[in-house]
Design goal:
Layout (H helix, E strand, L loop, with lengths): L2 H4 L2 H4 L8 H30 L12 H21 L13 E3 L4 H8 L7 H17 L4 H4 L5 H24 L2 H6 L7 H20 L3 H4 L1 H15 L5 H10 L17 H30 L5 H20 L5 E3 L1 H10 L4 H15 L2 H7 L4 H23 L6 H22 L14 H8 L2 H14 L10 H4 L17
Antiparallel strand pairs: 1-2
Helix pairs in contact: 3-4, 3-5, 3-17, 4-15, 4-17, 4-18, 6-14, 6-15, 8-19, 8-20, 8-22, 10-12, 10-19, 12-19, 13-18, 14-15, 14-16, 14-21, 20-22
């Protein structure tokens, strides 16, 4: 579909322009396909951590269907806030909202091994954290100085590092098989499925163009799904049974799991809201630069942040997870050259319809865990790569090296040590109050706080020899380490 057939260059740069409906509908669905897998994956990971996910044989396993349904429904509703707006809420730009990976390392310690009983505190935290997130819209311009690329890049990198283990566990057959000590865990049958998904995904990413490249993960998972049916790993009866047992239409239930205020949950979601808000600012700027060739206005940035928070709060009230703007859709706008917010509105309506039809979630629920593993290995690796890309904007002088080193060492160390301990086991944070233990176990919040505080307090320059004794001869030679008069 050529740009000229959609409208004039001026029209394509106008967020208020609407292409002809027969062209706008497929463009809107493109946006949904680009983010669909990423949007439902956090719910699947959360259910697995709580103990009622794939392969768990838990009586609460059907609750996963509800979490998937809410992920789609409230991603659509939050997207409508951005495109249609409601008073000051929304940027009136083609911003696609979806369930955020950023909060997963915060959520896992809150629900680990607790089953459905852990969800009351979780969703109360999502609700209250969302309201706090919305308040950030009034001050987002004033707090951006405290979250430079050094901090945001570190946090995003750590989010990815916290998740990569999940991808490997899924690809090998899932946590339940691992816990049982099953011979099937990590066997060739499991790895062959995951590797097929990875190969197809990478092949499309590198050698395809347009929507085939944008939807590479989704297509890779579809190919893996079909492969599992063909080799008998996924019986057709299981798919038809899940389809038949799921309702054709269902409305969300307010506070379905109760409302229990946990200090750890509230603090965790509020602190991560800062990171999510800064991510949204970057996405808004990317959309206006890539689609319209201009900087984002303060009103657009504030409105987008309001929509982030309000969308998250409403989702939390009905059993949905935190929402944020999706960066992959920013790239899709740059690729299509269509800046129309009404195109994204069509995609949002499609998501809402999917969220109201549990049969769709019923089919998603039948995806073999190994298939999903192949997809999330790629996705979570891309999260790490995105963080490293952000860090490339940092001037790597000795001051910033020390800040990054201390924050990463403590944060990642806590994450690996505490989150790798079985429930009820002894870990390095066992003597802390439960609230601090949960927050510390995420690793991300300690790392972010250390980086922010050191960045604000440390002097701009450190003596040249100040890191020699701790670098072990492995100092880098980036631009930030060269003499100031040494060129670029």
């Amino acid at each position: 579909m050529s740009h000229s057939s959609l409208g004039t260059p001026e029209q394509l740069r106008d967020p208020n322009f609407t292409p002809p409906l027969w062209k706008a509908v497929p463009l809107g669905i493109q946006h949904v396909l680009a983010m669909f897998v990423s949007n439902v994956t956090p719910a699947i990971i959360l259910a697995g951590a709580a103990g009622f996910g794939f392969g768990s044989n838990s009586p609460d396993f059907p609750e996963l269907l509800y979490l998937i349904q809410m992920s789609m429904l409230f991603a659509g509703i939050a997207t409508l806030f951005q495109t249609i707006t409601l008073g000051p809420v929304g940027a009136a730009l083609p911003i696609v909202q979806g369930t955020s990976f950023a909060f997963i390392p915060i959520m896992i310690p809150l629900v680990a091994g607790k089953g459905v009983d852990g969800l009351a505190a979780l969703f109360a935290g999502v609700f209250l954290g969302g309201l706090f997130h919305a308040l950030l819209g009034t001050v987002i311009g004033k707090i951006r100085f405290a979250l430079p690329p050094l901090v945001t890049g570190l946090v995003v990198t750590m989010i990815g590092l916290a998740l990569v283990k999940v991808g490997i566990e899924y690809a090998a057959g899932g946590v339940p098989l691992k816990a049982q000590g099953s011979e099937a865990y990590g066997d060739l049958a499991s790895w062959s499925v995951a590797l097929l998904v990875i190969v197809v995904t990478l092949g499309l990413k590198f050698f395809a163009r347009g929507m085939l490249s944008i939807s590479a993960v989704l297509i890779g998972i579809f190919v893996g799904y079909v492969y599992c049916i063909l080799v008998g790993k996924l019986p057709v009866e299981a798919i038809s049974g899940s389809w038949q047992n799921a309702a054709a239409f269902a409305l969300p239930t307010p506070f379905k799991y109760g409302f229990e205020v946990s200090l750890a949950a509230v603090i965790g979601f509020c602190l991560m809201a800062f990171v999510s808000a800064v991510e949204t600012v970057g996405d808004v700027s990317g959309i206006t630069k890539g689609g319209a060739g201009r900087e984002a206005t303060d009103k657009e940035i504030a409105g987008a942040t309001y929509a982030d928070g309000i969308g998250t709060a409403i989702a939390g009230a009905f059993g949905g997870l935190p929402n944020t703007s999706f960066s992959q859709n920013v790239g899709l706008i740059a690729m299509t050259g269509v800046m129309s917010r009404h195109v994204v509105t069509i995609g949002a309506i499609f998501l809402i319809v999917c969220g109201l039809v549990p049969k769709i979630g019923g089919v998603i629920r039948t995806i073999p865990i190994e298939v999903l593993g192949g997809g999330v290995i790629v996705m979570f690796g891309m999260v790490v790569a995105s963080g490293i890309s952000m860090l490339s904007d940092v001037t790597w002088n000795r001051r910033n090296m020390v800040i990054f080193a201390v924050a990463l060492s403590i944060g990642l160390g806590l994450q690996l040590e505490a989150m790798g301990t079985a429930p009820g086991g002894v870990d390095a944070l066992q003597h802390l109050p439960e609230t601090l233990r949960v927050l510390g176990a995420s690793g991300i919040l300690p790392a972010a706080l250390i980086a922010i505080v050191l960045n604000l307090l440390l002097p701009e320059e450190l003596a040249e020899e100040s890191t020699e004794e701790v670098s072990g001869g492995l100092q880098g030679h980036g631009a930030g380490l060269r003499p100031k008069d040494g060129g670029h």
